[in-house]
Protein 1
Amino acid sequence: MKSKINLGQTKIFWMLFSSLSIFSLLFLGKFVSSAQAVDYSSLERVEVPAIYKWNLALFYPNNVAFQTDKALVEKKIINFKKNSGKLTNNTAIKKALDEYYGLAILVSRLSGYASKVYDSDTRNSEAIGLRKMTEKITNDFEGASSFLKPELLKLSDAKLKALAANKSFNKFDVFLNGLIREKKHVLSEKEESILAKTGNLQNAPYNIYNTFLTGELPYQKAVLADGTEVVVSPYNYVKYRQSSNRSDRKLVFDNYFGAISNYKNTLAQTLSSQVEANIFRSQAKYFNTAIEEALYSTNLSVDYYKNLVARVNKELPLLWRYLALKKKVLGLDELRYNDLYAPINSSFSGVYPYSEGLDLVLEAVKPLGAEYEKQAKLTLTPGNGRIDIYPNLGKATGAYSAGDKADPVPYILMNYDDSYLSISTLIHESGHSVHSYLANQNQSYLKTGYSTLIAETASTFNENLLLEYMLAHETDQEKRKELLGDSLETMRITLFRQAMFAEFELAIYTAAEEGTPLTAEYLNDTYLKLVKKYYGEAEGVVKVDDAYAIEWAQVPHFYFDYYVFNYVGGYLNGLELSAKALKDSAARDKYLSMLKAGGSAYPLDLLKKAGLDATSATAYDDAFKVIEQRVSELEKIVGK
Ligand SMILES: [Zn+2]
């Protein structure tokens, strides 16, 4: 299983400016088989026609140009160090920040180029070398500029405030104001250097976990109903839990969770160690709790997080109504936890060659106005060199949008397979890509990087536009059933399941912070209670087998503290804002102004710009109304 989270792809200046520019799709675990009209997946990259590939010559027309930039960067990095110890007056500070800014763009461009060459064919040894080379440059740059932040942090609050307000420092105001907030959590130079040296130790629990779960944990064989023998690996578990044969679904659930359960104490140790490492770091940096540290860079409060989870809890009956329909369609007298991934129909079917998918996307984004549509068209049209459409041998899997302002244009990587899910992915990535374009057009470099929460708002917004467009043009009841079923399944996984994960994280961190040891029994017990609550066991919605309590052990996201709430918030923001924008052009314009604001403000302030007070009790009323309408229509089609 490949989990599509964007950690590890964070922009290189994370340390200094806390911004992200690469956004990939949450892996929903859906397998799609479709009769693809054009299939390059078993061909070498050179055999794929150029119009379907991104044009990286927009970065550098040839190798000489790349080498010229590389040499320039190396020279500038050495020169940059000379600013160390000199940040005592405005002129010197301005010079250092300007040089840093220019270098950041150049370094980002080099690595943006290298990563795309690499993703085009990850087996290519030249590409591997190129990526290693730019990683080294990035590290050198980080090393050479490591003095910058500590020296600036030595300036008084009044001085930093004055600089931020100074017109000639306009490009740096968000960064300088951020330093004032950060001061409380910065240690002495010696302490910071000791803490930095614990970096590898802090990554160890996840590395051990990942190696074990994906490489060494012995998965077991099972014989499916048709006599096929399979090893129930994470990949096959995800594949066969969607079987239309009920006994196969139960077989892979029992087998997979049984295999993992044999190592429950080891897996509890790795997760517990990760939690302890994050708590240690947050305490060392004078935060009260790990969640405070995790939310700090986005200026979100713990109350915001708790309210978001509480709101989803309040709406659980909507999930239960959908699950009751699922049970009915599957013809079961009891819906069990291992039935959840069973297809309630063939998922929205049909073969959509890329040109048709593109037409649908462009029609769907029309409500966002001409400028938006024009940019989406420019990005997605084959031959413009901005999108890499089809899979080829060695190409990176999944899909992402890379929209760093340092890049010549925003790029999209796809593995388009002519399915409806592919179109949904395409419009999701176009949401990120046009967002980046608008932010890049309207903001200076350091204010373009938006947070994951805002990123997932823009992409979910577009996914919803596609669904609304499809529903508006589909009269066939069977097709409407498939569309609604698909969208509600996405809701289950992106909204309710991730909220359950977010609640679990808060529970185990809180327990650990209060001194409760995170044993396998404790984790199983806490997780099982949540699964039973979310899936309405007491209400007779889903029967949850106690043996599946171990599910927490196979979720890698729990190793990245407090990340999954972004999916919950992004989903609700996107649905709420798109519902409003489709009704009212003033709401649409406010939304566009949020996209243009990029990362120039914190998430809640950006959402306010878009007309959404995410902290209000009524924040997501429209979003849940939309979900309610979809459930109601499905109830009408299927019959309660
Ligand atoms: Zn995304």
Protein 2
Amino acid sequence: MSHSLLDLFRHLSKQKGAIRNFIAPAPCPVLKNFHISDHGDIHIRDCQEVAHKIREIKRQGSQNFQILTDYDQTLTKTGYVDGKKADSSFKALQDSTFIPHEIKTLTRALYEKYHKIELDLTLHPDEKSAHMIDWWEGNFNYFVQMGLKQEDHGNVVLNSRLLLRYGIQDFLSLGSKLDLPLYIVSGGISEIIEANFYAMLHNGETGEAEEGLREYWEKRVQVLSNRFIYENGQGIDYVRPVIHILNKQQFIYDTDPSIKFRKNVLIMGDILEDVQMVRESEHDIVLKVGFLNDLEANAHLMPEFMKTYDIVVTGDGSLQPINFLLKQTFAEELKLEDIHLHQDHKSFETIKTVFA
Ligand SMILES: [Mg+2]
């Protein structure tokens, strides 16, 4: 954990209003805010299979369960409150005032070169992976030249367009109540991801829950992502190997072999490759939830998403479908008698059939 980054947010939290809100506003069914309109639509490939997985997860209890999730566009939103694009962790840094114009142009050129390769479905995974490493290392080589301090990443986040999905507070609070290990596995930047959560956990927007959630974050949440190396407080290099969209599995099982110990896993991601972060042979039940955020632009991916994930949430929705699933599954452990969670919302009709 990065202490100087944490210290920055601890310090800022004493000044009221110094940290903006980082959680998307609640969807409002009556006065529909057309930018943040919905919890998303839920699609389930095979209700019986999902019901079986959930029964098994429930039977083995929360002590055998953990969560592996992507960060960019999975825990965060694709769309910002103004209806325009939200940031990713990379973009937040790249577009920040800490990166001079010349470097922005150079990283943009890398994007032009490698994004085409990233989308090329005909390329062998090993070849694609080699290109992704070149791309990521290229970016990091440029970023390192800036000699950023840890606190600078905090300021990047404060001025960013990063936005966590509505329901993140409930999601963390369920993780805390059930004492679930939560791994945030990202090809982005650890410092930015951590600063994003520190900001959200120090600005009062989670109310009375804040302290408990901070404890959970320190105790049970691990960010497995790219990280800078510091000397005398300045970034001088980055940790290798880099983690990118295609090598998450290798990275996480090498970094933290204890991931193998819990046999049942919920994984969450927003691209097809995210599903490969889990090594299925190490686990019993893997429940897979995919976010296909922009259904209009990516309708062609829907059949493949439905094949890959058990549950697909479309429409840049909230995390409430996941929270609903966790609450239903562990209702007894959580001592929940009646789950009032937007049960009247159309999105939850589909998911309720699993528990019927
Ligand atoms: Mg992502």
